Amino acid sequence: MLNTHRKAILLTVIAGFLWGTSFPAIKVGLRYMDPYTFVFLRFLVASVAMLAICVFTKNFSLKFEKKRLILLLGVSNGIAYLLQYVGMVYVDAAASSLFVNLSVVWVALLTPLVFRESIGLKKALGVMASLLGVVFMTTNLEFASLSSGAVTADLLVIGAGVLWAVFIVFNKPLINDSKNTIRSVTWLLIFTLVPLLPIAPYSTGVLASLPVDAWLAIIYTAILCWVVPYYLWLKALKHLSPVTSAIVLLSEIVVAVAISTLFLGEVFTLVSGAGAVLIVIAMLLAS
Predict the structure, then answer these.
(1) Distance of alpha carbon 4 from alpha carbon 240, whole angstroms
(2) How large is the C-alpha radius of gyration of the chain?
(3) What is the C-alpha to C-alpha distance for residues 287 and 281, in angstroms, rounded to an integer?
(4) How many angstroms separate the CA atoms of 220 and 207, rounded?
(5) In Å, what is the CA distance from 220 to each residue of 24, 128, 199, 206, 227?
(6) Which residue in 1, 9, 82, 110 is a FRET match for 160, CA 20 to 30 A apart?
(7) Cβ neighbour number for residue 66 with a 10 Å cutoff
(8) Buried b vs exposed e over 139-174: b needs ≥16 C-beta within 10 Å?
(9) How many CB atoms within 10 Å of residue 213?
(10) Torsion over CA of 268, 272, 273 and 276, rounded to 10 degrees?
(11) pLDDT tens per residue, the chain (287 residues)?
């Protein structure tokens, strides 16, 4: 029998693996639809699926704990995914996984502020390494590219990682105080749709024209890249610190890079590869 801590680590690794597959899956889905339609339909499907599970298991209720916190987490999650999807129109899946997982650095910085802990020299060095790595990956040391839209796309995906740092840190009090995880996940998903609702009129207009491959990408990312991994990760977070959880989720990068290289033909230059190494080092230092 696995002890509680090891089980939590295992669940987080599984969640990270599933989330890692989402990056190449998103790139495939973006071939068939715009990012706004994709992100809205993904979370509409996820919300409907989770709501059905909640009702079927007799966990649904209009009364639930931590309403304001769940609203904050849901809205920040929706905005983060919107930033990621728009950015990933121009950013490779492997690079996106690195930028998003910079959240481990932001978690390391945010956690002391929330829980009143010191940052420490290693975390400070981690921040410096992460910023240098971002410069390498976003510019490839060709600084003329700073005027192009590609860097803006990189910053959008990085911004998503910052929001997910807030998401990771404040999920800790949610899972610690929640008496019904299924209900909390359901309402969080519903609130994730709030910042995506302005997209709804446009998205519903293209439903009939979406090919089967587009729907497969939507359903896959909705169920196997959100509902399942988020539930597993949230259960594990009850027994892990936010920083430890964020570090274990680095498994996302390994999966995303492997799939993107093997099946999408993505490649790193020597400079961008060095930037990726710096980012990973930063993540380890921040832990």
Answers:
(1) 10
(2) 18
(3) 10
(4) 17
(5) 12, 36, 21, 19, 10
(6) 9
(7) 18
(8) bbeeeeeeeeebbebbbbbbbbbbbbbbbbbbbbeb
(9) 12
(10) -120
(11) 568 888 998 999 899 999 999 999 999 999 999 999 999 999 999 999 999 999 999 999 988 888 999 999 999 999 999 999 999 998 888 788 888 888 888 888 888 778 776 667 777 787 788 778 877 876 677 766 545 557 888 899 999 999 999 999 999 989 988 889 999 999 999 999 999 999 888 777 678 789 999 999 999 999 999 999 999 999 999 998 888 888 878 778 778 878 887 888 877 678 878 888 888 887 777 65
Q: What is the pTM of this model?
A: 0.86
How far apart, in Å, do the first and last CA atoms of the chain sit?
Answer: 27
- Asked if residue 137 lies in contact with residue 95, where contact means CB atoms within 8 angstroms, the answer is yes
Tokens of 66: 């931590």
Residue 94 is encoded by which pair of tokens? 């492997």
Q: What per-residue string of b and e applies to 96-128 under the rule 16 or more CB within 10 Å gives b? A: bbbbbbbbbbbbbbbbeeeeeeeeeeebeebbe
Task: Report the distance separating Cα 245 and Cα 196, nearest Å.
Answer: 27
Residue 260 tokens, joined: 């993107």
Q: Are 84 and 96 in contact (CB under 8 A)?
A: yes
pLDDT in tens, 163-199: 999 999 999 989 988 889 999 999 999 999 999 999 8
